[in-house]
């Protein structure tokens, strides 16, 4: 290695742990990670730089922002600030991948990336949880998967110091995609973390970003506020790593602006109390239980319709042919029969599910992605399932890449079949009709129970989550409204309609994404 100039001597140790990205002023270096986990079985990628010092202050932040807002550059600004890099040092260190800020869907990862920055030269150990910022209506599930897995991992992330919402200072309004991303993330966290949410405005020239501040307020983004009840924000430029001539002073102002913003941000971190993820875990578990309930309700509604059709066909056969049935043992008719079959899971919806082998129900689907022990699944309580009809013990369940699917087939039935099915009451048409009605009534009672339980989850999430109108709830809002109408609950219908009305823009964005996803899978 060539001898280093005096301005580089103080960074010799860091440079020795780095590779050159590009020569120039400044010379750009990429720090070599101590560990770089690419385990595809994990819902996150982890890159560590150095070893964690338990005697040092440790800050954990979550970065959220649309692709192209400069989130990746901002992460590198943090690293250089922590290393005490000055503009006159003519060096710039990076820890992120080249593709991190690209806008192409082909270069984006659906997994969150966890950067552990633990170098001796830094006065603070820092963990940065970087979320993907691309167009995907399953973003909230991916982040939830990562957060729960991280909290259960060996190093265990159990608290967060700050949730950083990254926005361009030059924007005059937030796009539907940005609002969706922020809403999705805020629907994951408990209300107690609001005062730890801050705005990081990038591409700033130092002026108060009045337009984007107004846009944030109009979008009802919840975040920490100052003593004037204004959102807490910090300003950054994004050209610290741009090459410049030796005498070029143009970049001095953006450099100073970004490092002033970073000084303010780290002062905020020093003064704010970190929040545990306990309430956030409660939110995530409520969501998982609600998800299981909705899946079960959808399956039950389908089963109910098919069963009604089967019973209707049987009833029509009895009414039209009852005299013939009494006197002809060889009487036959066709009926559409409902049955359950194990099928492979659609990988675009989920990878695993937990099902009851006794009830033949999908108790946790889509889902069951963050826990291995069946007894610890979010739908289990006191070792028994809260979802399947018989509330079976967890040992009666299995977890895998298959689910039960309700299907129908045409069967020929005879007078003997009818006698067996209806306990010899074939000669008593009144008794048979009553029995059919009772069976339908039992199905209806279970449906009402499932609908009410699902609404209870909606109300609970409204009470404990930052974003009361959860993006997850919105994905099923029309289905829930129709089911609530059917069981004659007008007040609950109005509550759901209000949620839908408040989330007009987000719903439109979700519909657009679904249409795009559908077009991608068409031949």
Short summary:
The chain is α/β, with parallel strands linked by helices and 523 residues long. The protein contains 14 helices and 20 strands.
Structure description:
Residues 61-246 form the AIG1-type G domain. It comes from Culter alburnus (Topmouth culter). Keywords: Coiled coil, Nucleotide-binding. GO terms for molecular function: GTP binding. This is AIG1-type G domain-containing protein. There is one protein chain. By secondary structure, the protein is an alpha/beta fold. It has three domains: 6-276, P-loop containing nucleotide triphosphate hydrolases (Rossmann fold); 284-447, no CATH class; 467-523, no CATH class. 41% of the residues lie in helices and 20% in strands. The protein is built from 14 helices and 20 strands. It has helices spanning 6-9, 12-16, 71-82, 139-152, 176-186, 210-218, 252-271, 278-327, 415-421, 429-464, 471-474, 477-486, 490-502, 504-521, and strands spanning 18-22, 27-31, 35-37, 44-50, 58-65, 91-94, 112-118, 125-130, 159-160, 162-168, 197-202, 233-235, 275-276, 332-344, 353-356, 361-364, 380-381, 384-385, 397-400, 402-414. The strands form six sheets. The protein has an eight-stranded mixed β-sheet with strand order 3-4-7-8-5-10-11-12, sandwiched between helices. Helix 8 runs antiparallel to helix 10 and helix 12 (477-486) runs antiparallel to helix 13. The protein is elongated and about 105 Å long. Mean pLDDT is 80; it is low at 99-109, 423-430 and 518-523.
């Amino acid at each position: 290695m060539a001898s280093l100039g005096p301005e580089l001597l103080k960074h010799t140790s860091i440079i020795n742990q780095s590779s050159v990205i590009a020569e120039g002023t400044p010379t750009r270096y990429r720090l070599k990670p101590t560990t770089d986990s690419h385990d595809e079985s994990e819902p996150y990628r982890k890159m560590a730089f150095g070893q964690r010092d338990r005697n040092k202050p440790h800050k954990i932040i979550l970065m959220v922002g649309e692709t192209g807002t400069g989130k990746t550059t901002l992460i590198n600004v943090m690293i250089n600030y922590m290393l005490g890099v000055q503009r006159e040092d003519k060096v710039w260190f990076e820890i992120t991948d080249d593709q991190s800020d690209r806008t192409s869907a082909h270069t984006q990862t659906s997994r969150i990336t966890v950067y552990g920055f633990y170098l001796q030269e830094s006065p603070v150990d820092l963990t940065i949880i970087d979320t993907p910022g691309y167009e995907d209506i399953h973003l909230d599930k991916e982040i939830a998967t990562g957060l729960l897995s991280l909290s259960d991992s060996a190093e265990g992330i159990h608290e967060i110091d700050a949730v950083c919402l990254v926005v361009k200072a030059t924007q005059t309004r937030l796009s539907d995609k940005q609002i969706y991303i922020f809403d999705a993330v805020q629907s994951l966290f408990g209300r107690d973390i609001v005062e730890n949410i801050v705005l990081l405005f990038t591409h700033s020239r130092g002026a108060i970003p009045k337009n984007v501040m107004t846009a944030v307020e109009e979008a009802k983004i919840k975040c920490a506020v100052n003593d004037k009840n204004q959102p807490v924000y910090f300003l950054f430029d994004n050209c610290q790593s741009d090459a410049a001539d030796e005498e070029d002073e143009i970049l001095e102002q953006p450099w100073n602006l970004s490092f002033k913003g970073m000084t303010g941000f780290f002062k905020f971190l020093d003064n704010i109390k970190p929040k545990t993820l306990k309430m956030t875990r409660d939110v995530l578990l409520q969501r998982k239980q609600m998800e299981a309930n909705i899946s079960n309700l959808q399956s039950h509604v389908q089963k109910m319709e098919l069963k009604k059709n089967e019973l209707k066909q049987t009833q029509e056969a009895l009414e039209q042919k009852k005299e013939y049935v009494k006197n002809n043992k060889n009487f036959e008719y066709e009926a559409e029969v409902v049955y359950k079959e194990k099928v492979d899971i659609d990988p675009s919806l989920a990878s695993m599910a937990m099902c009851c082998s006794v009830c033949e129900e999908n108790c946790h689907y889509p889902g069951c992605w963050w826990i291995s022990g069946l007894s610890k699944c979010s739908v289990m309580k006191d070792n028994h399932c809260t979802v399947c009809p018989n509330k079976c013990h967890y040992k009666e369940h299995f977890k895998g890449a298959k689910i039960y699917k309700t299907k129908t087939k045409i069967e020929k039935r005879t007078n003997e079949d009818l006698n067996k099915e209806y306990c010899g009451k074939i000669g008593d048409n009144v008794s048979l009709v009553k029995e059919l009605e009772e069976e339908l009534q039992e199905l209806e009672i279970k449906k009402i129970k499932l609908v009410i339980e699902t609404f209870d989850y909606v109300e609970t999430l409204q009470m404990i989550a930052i974003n009361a109108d959860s993006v997850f709830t919105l994905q099923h809002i029309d289905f829930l409204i129709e089911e609530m109408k059917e069981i004659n609950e007008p007040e609950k219908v109005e509550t759901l309609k209000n949620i839908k009305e408040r989330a007009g823009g987000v719903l439109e964005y979700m519909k657009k994404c679904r249409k795009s996803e559908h077009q991608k899978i068409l031949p």
